[in-house]
Amino acid sequence: MNQRLAPAPEDPESAMGTKSPSTLAALPTLRVHDPVGAHQCGLSPKEIEQFRRDGYLIKRDLVPGELFQPILDLWWQQPPVTESGVIREQPETWVSPGDRWLSENRWGLTNNWMGENVWPGPEAARPGATVGDRVGRLPYKLTRDRTNDVWRWHGIGHDPEFVACTTGHPNVMYMAEALLGGPIKKPYRNRGLYAVFPCDPEGPESILGPHMDQNMTELMVVTYLHDVEPGCGGFTFWPGSPQMLYPTSQQAFNWVATGASYEAMDKAKTEIQPLEFTGKAGDTLFCHALMIHSAGIHQGQGIRFACIQDMNKSRPRTHMRWTVAGKHGGPRVHCDMDGIIRIDRETGDDPADGDREVTNQWIMDSNEFVVSREPPHVDMFDEWNLGKAVVSGNIVDEQPWWERYDLPMMPEEGMGRGTGGVPAVALKDIADYEGNGVWRVRRRAI
């Protein structure tokens, strides 16, 4: 196994993008264009051919749509709806609600930030970070994107019932093994429920925001909880973009961008015809994780409800992808693949100060680097199944990473479903200071 030197660490919350716009409008993925086998579990020869060529396939009616009704009923009871005048029986209130959202919210949280403190607001004094520094993901993430108003309900992503009817549904697990091959890591969370609201027709023009998530995921999965018609905010992706990006990475299993990666992304945005995933409740899109994608432009009616999921093989993993707040004007720094965090004294920060905030991208089911640093393979799918072997239920039940690291994730007693999340902890609680600005994190990977 080729163990190359650790590359410069990247922010685990960052996505890869370039400034050039996408030049083509998205076309819908109509059922009439599906290859043979789209309505069945398993892979047809045409589907295998499509996935190898384009990096995606769609399975229709993969999950029974009626399973999602309790979650959708719960969705309408949440603060981003009840506090902003979005009314279930009045579709006119669903249009562009972002101007009625709080600029900051701390819904669904408890006092566990850096021990027993409240999650800080933008102006709050913070002994472990510079005032105004980010807190990371929230259970209710509300954004006014370049494309639409989007509510990402990350807090529901670790709800056992929600996981059971999405990522953990037997049909989704079957398809993951059919594509990736085993052993598949049993999922304990996904990114949650992403709701895209209709645009205001009198508002500014919406544009796509193509990007690629820089994480440890192998298979990206999108399941609709409600029907999505063309032009109604469908998940938009650039077929064939994984095949362009994969050979530009320094490593096969940990994404490490190079100059060629950004050139490939610009080329993909210019030359590839993007597709808007459209379909019925229960329809599920499977993509190679390097797929360039964007929230779709919503110029129709209704709210787009999608579960965004990350699936992986069970692999040897190493250190958590921590990010560490700066203090006294010093910059934020990140953990590298060797488990090293470096704090430069020249910035005015005290490198030995372990009472600083450390967070991670807690919305992910896999949050640790893969041990292998081998370069990309000649055939990017040579370790995938893609019909080579019969699905046998080869699933490994690994302990969730937040339990291994003794981090709070689940809602505490008295908190509602869809709440919770991992707060900041102190650097000294996850790493040891070795001197000269170097901290070494404690490894708890399997």
What does this molecule look like?
The chain is α+β, with helices and mostly antiparallel strands. It has a domain at 35-105 and 140-311: q2cbj1_9rhob like domain (Jelly Rolls). The protein contains eight helices and 24 strands. It has helices spanning 45-54, 69-75, 79-82, 160-164, 170-180, 241-245, 259-271, 401-404; strands at 15-16, 27-28, 56-59, 141-144, 149-153, 184-185, 192-196, 212-213, 219-224, 236-237, 275-276, 284-288, 293-294, 304-311, 317-320, 323-324, 333-334, 340-342, 357-359, 368-370, 395-396, 425-426, 431-435, 438-441. Strands 3-12-9-14-7-5-4 form a seven-stranded antiparallel β-sheet. Strands 2-11-10-13 form a four-stranded mixed β-sheet, with no helix packed on it. It is globular.
CATH architecture annotation name of the domain at 35-105 and 140-311: Sandwich
Question: What is the number of E strands?
Answer: 24
The main sheet orders its strands as: 3-12-9-14-7-5-4
- Number of alpha- plus pi-helical segments: 8
Which stretches of 5+ consecutive residues score pLDDT under 50?
none
CATH class of the domain at 35-105 and 140-311, anyone?
Mainly Beta
Strand content: 15-25%
Distance between the termini: 18 Å
CATH topology of the domain at 35-105 and 140-311, what is it called?
Answer: Jelly Rolls
Into which percent range does the helicity of residues fall? 10-25%
What structural class do helix, strand and pairing data support?
Answer: alpha+beta
Radius of gyration: 21 Å
Shape: globular
The average pLDDT score comes to: 95
Sheet with the most strands, sense and barrel status: 7 strands, antiparallel
User: Mind telling me the CATH superfamily name of the domain at 35-105 and 140-311?
Assistant: q2cbj1_9rhob like domain
